[in-house]
């Protein structure tokens, strides 16, 4: 009997996109910090 193991964490390959222009200053901007403490959270 053959056992097939599947990885549910699919690696989707996407075309690269250009980053938006950097802000000259952060005045008036809000900053948020995100901590992903789930398995494979260190990928992002």
Describe the protein in words.
By secondary structure, the protein is mostly loops. Helices cover 0% and strands 0% of the residues. The chain has no helix or strand. The radius of gyration is 19 Å and the shape is elongated. The termini are far apart. The mean pLDDT is 85.
Key descriptive features of the protein:
44 residues, little secondary structure, 0% helix, elongated
Condensed summary:
The chain has 44 residues and is mostly loops.
Helix fraction bin? under 10%
Average predicted confidence as pLDDT: 85
Count of strand segments: 0
Q: Which residues sit in consecutive blocks of at least 5 with pLDDT less than 50?
A: none
* General form: elongated
Biggest sheet overview: none
Distance between termini? 38 Å
Q: How many alpha or pi helices? A: 0
The whole-angstrom Rg is 19 Å
Structural class: little secondary structure
Q: Strand fraction band?
A: under 5%
Give the topology.
Blueprint: no helix or strand
């Amino acid at each position: 009997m053959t056992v097939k193991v599947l990885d549910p964490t699919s690696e989707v390959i996407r075309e690269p996109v250009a980053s938006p222009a950097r802000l000259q200053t952060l005045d008036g901007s809000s900053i948020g910090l995100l901590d992903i403490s789930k398995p494979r959270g260190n990928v992002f």
